[in-house]
């Protein structure tokens, strides 16, 4: 019964309805703001909710088609099958181009509805413009769905079974990675809308900074979770033994993260000092533009990647036009109205604001380097047909010096006072931490015999110790009574803790990356019963069996790992053969104690000239590898804690006044 109600035709209709409502959401409130008609502006919220509800129905129709194995829908036919597990039938809805674009539009509509609900305290004109701009962006993606990426296209006659899903995507990590990543991408549409609305209003002040900052922090935290989850998936599914490969699509997610990090720092200065207004507006436009650019690159066929969805030129041209309209229009408006945004706050070079400016310069420089390295090969190929590859050596050599300087600023910046800092007081706060960090650099260099990892580890330790030193200073530990220190602890704003938690998360991630640089590995071809020695561990291949999975056949190895004769763990790496797709994927076995990972991959089996079969094993010892993802999630936790800060729930006195409507 439900499948008849939520039919593909009904989904197509509700998608078209959502597009119409999004267009109305864009035009009617802007028209109302133009003529100062409060009734037209007040329509922004119900139109946003109407669009969201229509897209919810459209998305439910596609999920219903997937769950009920409706192979008359082309999208389901190409990406599902009868024997596909239920979880992956549902998650497979967004594991393809058409479904992912519908998910993007759905999340954008969701944010539009939430903004319309939680922006009642905004001036009516600004609120209407913010919701209208989000409606215009959503209308573009919904039109994209309807014209070149319709997820509800029918095929006739309908086959009895589908073609199945890419086996690499049949993993729990991929069930959550795309939605969380997309929420981060699309979340930056909110500060983008605030920025464009502010340009239309011709006003950016402290209240605007307070309004835009929580949405920026939310998008940044979600994008951080999405990137960390995707990196973890790459580590444990692809079987390459690494966490980041400077893949073009990986870079496409890193770009808005870098500029988004700069944006959330700039918005703080706008809120505190009404300075860096132009910086903040430009970063808001640039961050969402980079999110859209990543969508274009993934779906245009320009970039070759294991993550790429589609290579249809028509789709690429449509997204390019959409990018030109949204981002190009916003940049033209910025060029026209930005000179009117004068800063009223004044600050010294050595101040919290000054460190944030330097932080922004470094982050944007890193973003420019990543963008150049990502786009240069396809650009050269377009010009003269020459195929180039820009990989890890380029990015490491170009980014590491900038990153080291950035870590230095991260340790000092939060300790400096706003407006004008005291150099002596700052040096006093950080002196002991600096000495310990220098000692760490010396010890690390003696162990690693490499100066760059030693410097990086020292700076990471300094970030952590500087946070501890500033915390001790704020609670006056050892300088007052325990009860007074406790009262200071509970009296500190949550944003204080959130800042240092996020920075410590960065330091932990970098320490994990440094540890991975010291990883050890062996690739061996051995018969059953052989013991391999690696990193002080004994890895014994005890057995290899074939097993039947729900839609695959698995060859599974059993490896006993021991150390000094004491058993540590049993590891079960495998290779899965999916008959429908004629594809083999690896299933990595990982044993972790949170300080290091034991990592095993089973390769192709080979027959020797004798009767004993040989099996290829790739074994890794990855010190500090778990810290990479632990640090990423700690960063995100810092962002979520920021959202609970009281000043984001309590408006400024000026905002509480009833705004007279025309």
From TrEMBL:
<feature type="transmembrane region" description="Helical">
    <location>
        <begin position="624"/>
        <end position="643"/>
    </location>
</feature>
<dbReference type="Pfam" id="PF16327">
    <property type="entry name" value="CcmF_C"/>
</dbReference>
<feature type="transmembrane region" description="Helical">
    <location>
        <begin position="278"/>
        <end position="297"/>
    </location>
</feature>
<keyword id="KW-0997">Cell inner membrane</keyword>
<feature type="transmembrane region" description="Helical">
    <location>
        <begin position="430"/>
        <end position="448"/>
    </location>
</feature>
<feature type="transmembrane region" description="Helical">
    <location>
        <begin position="43"/>
        <end position="67"/>
    </location>
</feature>
<keyword id="KW-0201">Cytochrome c-type biogenesis</keyword>
<protein>
    <submittedName>
        <fullName>Cytochrome c biogenesis protein CcmF (CcmF)</fullName>
    </submittedName>
</protein>
<dbReference type="InterPro" id="IPR003568">
    <property type="entry name" value="Cyt_c_biogenesis_CcmF"/>
</dbReference>
<comment type="function">
    <text>Required for the biogenesis of c-type cytochromes. Possible subunit of a heme lyase.</text>
</comment>
<feature type="transmembrane region" description="Helical">
    <location>
        <begin position="254"/>
        <end position="271"/>
    </location>
</feature>
<dbReference type="InterPro" id="IPR032523">
    <property type="entry name" value="CcmF_C"/>
</dbReference>
<feature type="transmembrane region" description="Helical">
    <location>
        <begin position="497"/>
        <end position="518"/>
    </location>
</feature>
<keyword id="KW-0812">Transmembrane</keyword>
<dbReference type="InterPro" id="IPR002541">
    <property type="entry name" value="Cyt_c_assembly"/>
</dbReference>
<feature type="transmembrane region" description="Helical">
    <location>
        <begin position="180"/>
        <end position="200"/>
    </location>
</feature>
<keyword id="KW-1003">Cell membrane</keyword>
<feature type="transmembrane region" description="Helical">
    <location>
        <begin position="399"/>
        <end position="418"/>
    </location>
</feature>
<feature type="transmembrane region" description="Helical">
    <location>
        <begin position="357"/>
        <end position="379"/>
    </location>
</feature>
<dbReference type="Pfam" id="PF01578">
    <property type="entry name" value="Cytochrom_C_asm"/>
</dbReference>
<feature type="transmembrane region" description="Helical">
    <location>
        <begin position="130"/>
        <end position="149"/>
    </location>
</feature>
<feature type="transmembrane region" description="Helical">
    <location>
        <begin position="317"/>
        <end position="336"/>
    </location>
</feature>
<dbReference type="InterPro" id="IPR003567">
    <property type="entry name" value="Cyt_c_biogenesis"/>
</dbReference>
<feature type="domain" description="Cytochrome c assembly protein">
    <location>
        <begin position="94"/>
        <end position="300"/>
    </location>
</feature>
<feature type="transmembrane region" description="Helical">
    <location>
        <begin position="101"/>
        <end position="118"/>
    </location>
</feature>
<feature type="transmembrane region" description="Helical">
    <location>
        <begin position="454"/>
        <end position="476"/>
    </location>
</feature>
<feature type="domain" description="Cytochrome c-type biogenesis protein CcmF C-terminal">
    <location>
        <begin position="320"/>
        <end position="646"/>
    </location>
</feature>
<feature type="transmembrane region" description="Helical">
    <location>
        <begin position="12"/>
        <end position="31"/>
    </location>
</feature>
<feature type="transmembrane region" description="Helical">
    <location>
        <begin position="212"/>
        <end position="234"/>
    </location>
</feature>
<comment type="similarity">
    <text>Belongs to the CcmF/CycK/Ccl1/NrfE/CcsA family.</text>
</comment>
<keyword id="KW-0472">Membrane</keyword>
<keyword id="KW-1133">Transmembrane helix</keyword>
